[in-house]
Specification:
The protein is α+β, with helices and mostly antiparallel strands. 20% of the residues lie in helices and 36% in strands. Homotrimer.
Length: 112
């Protein structure tokens, strides 16, 4: 099993969700996060005053999936989250040793 973590632009959430449902992924966790990379923030004007926004709002999506579908998940996220502009985000993949469904006690793939 793998955990796939993707940092995306907030307005792309529904497109990413629909793409993941389209390949059979039924569960994910979404967290509001802030950060910066090459984008290094931006400036905004509010009531005539200019503000520097150094941490850009993003969403972090986390999915636990079987090893065999990781490439499909990555392709779905890239295909639906990509705008072609700086700040589209990143995807990270980590190994998961064990998963347990609290309600039933099912483990590993059965728990997903």
């Amino acid at each position: 099993m793998k955990i796939v973590s993707a940092i995306i632009k907030p307005f792309k959430l529904e497109e990413v969700r629909d793409a993941l449902i389209g390949i059979g992924i039924v569960g994910m966790t979404v967290t509001e996060v802030k950060g910066y990379g090459r984008q290094k923030g931006h400036t905004e004007i509010y009531r005539g005053a200019e503000y520097i926004i150094s941490l850009v709002p993003k969403l972090k999506i986390e999915l636990i999936v079987d090893d065999g579908v990781v490439d499909d998940v990555i392709a779905a996220i890239v295909g639906s989250a990509k705008t072609g502009h700086i700040g589209d985000g990143k995807i990270f993949v980590h190994s998961i040793d064990r998963a347990v469904r609290i309600r039933t006690g099912e483990e590993d793939l059965a728990a997903l």
